[in-house]
Each structure stands twice: as C-alpha cells, then as structure tokens.
Amino acid sequence: MPESPLVLDEYARRIRTDVDANLLRQEQLRGELRKLEEEHNVLLRLQETLATGAEAIASMRAETGEAGEAGEAGELPKPRRAERQVPRRRGGKGRAGKGRLSGEASLIETVNALLQAQAEPRSVAEILGEVIAVRPATIQTVRNTLDRLVATSKAERTKQGRSVYYSAVGAAAGSQPTPAVDAQ
C-alpha cells in the first residue's frame, strides 16, 4: 500500500490542472459573452435607427401624398427600378430594341447627338458622364458606340499622347471658320 500516497498525489495534480484549465476556459467564455453582449447592443441600436428611418420615410410619403408600395411603417420602400415598367426581353437572334425602352433613342443616336452638340473633342469618360445622365451605360458600351460612329464616318477620333478624343464630323468642320482663299 505504499503506492497509494503516490496515486493520490497524481490525482491531486491532475485535478489541480483540470481546475486551472476549467477556470481559464470560463474566463475565455466570459470574454466571448461580453463581446456577444456588445454586438447585441450595437445590433439593437442599428435596428432602432432603421425603424426610426423607415418611420421618417413613411411620414414623408404621407405628408407629400406619395402612394408608396411599402405596406407598414417599418417596411423599407422598394427600389425605384422595380417601379419602372421595363419590358421583358425575349430570346431572339435580332439585336433591335435591346437595352432601351420603346420610344427611347438608341445609344448610337444619343452619343451622336451629344457629339454634334459639342464644339470641342471629348474623351470617352466625358461622353460617358453625359450619356449616364440620359440612360444607363458602361464605359465599354460607350467606347464601342464611338468606334461604330468612327467606322461609319459620323465621328472623328484624335489622339493626344495616350488620350483619345472624339468629335462629330460635322461639328469639327463647322466650328472652325475657314479662311477665304483669293483666286487671284
């Protein structure tokens, strides 16, 4: 039986180690619980702020008499794009009518009209800024449209260093007065 004190010491050491590990784990869990409580408080404040904002929107709509599609005061309004009646595109081989509403000018007509209205050459970015004010477009779409106008001789492309500028063919010739040549 002389081994029993050694066994008891081993058990006491293991229990001490387990108690220390348990206390350490409890402290870790308390820290995680504190973080979760902080996150919970932040989320509650955000929820309150959103509810207040939705109520403000609902009251503004009620004051202006705007018939909103939002049902309750706490519900957010639907995006404007959903309100617009956009015709569905049918799968087909033709490209006519793609990307525009009926009665809306084509992108090529829009870009050509913008170029005709300008007295000086414009970069693609400048043209894109003007096109976006009228209809949705990407820079690559505008670039392709300008290339089509150049190919059909409706626009000119000029390079200045690494920059490329576009102008309408009629606008470039009409904006510069030509000196009178004396035949004598």
Structure description:
The protein has 184 residues and is mainly alpha-helical. The protein contains six helices and three strands. The protein has a three-stranded antiparallel β-sheet. Strand 2 and strand 3 (163-168) form a beta hairpin. Helix 3 (107-117) crosses helix 4 and helix 3 (107-117) packs across helix 5. It is elongated and about 110 Å long.
In short:
With 184 residues, the protein is mainly alpha-helical. The chain contains six helices and three strands, in the order αααβααββα.
Distinct helical segment count: 6
Q: Please bin the fraction of helical residues.
A: 55-70%
Strand order of the largest sheet: 1-3-2
> Runs with pLDDT <50, length 5+?
92-97, 172-184
Major sheet details: 3 strands, antiparallel
Global structural class? mainly alpha
Q: Give the SSE string.
A: HHHEHHEEH
